[in-house]
Amino acid sequence: MPINGSAATPAEPVEVPRGLAGVVVTETELGDVRGYEGFYHYRQYSAVELAQSRSFEDVWHLMFHGELPDAERSAAFAARTARLRHLPEEVRDALPAISRASALSGPLSGLRTALSLFGASKGFRPVYDIDDDRRREDALAAAAVVPTLLTALYRLGQGLAPVEPRDDLSYAANYLYMMTGSEPDPARGRAIEQYLISTIDHGFNASTFTARVIMSTGADVVACLVGAVGALSGPLHGGAPSRALDTLDAIGTPERIDGWIRERVLAGDRIMGFGHPVYRTEDPRSRMLRGIAGRFGGDMVEFAIEVERRVEAILAELKPGRELHTNVEFYAGVVMDLCGLPREMFTPTFAAARVVGWSANILEQARDSKIIRPAARYVGETPPVPVPPAPVRVA
Question: pTM score, two decimals?
Answer without folding.
Answer: 0.89
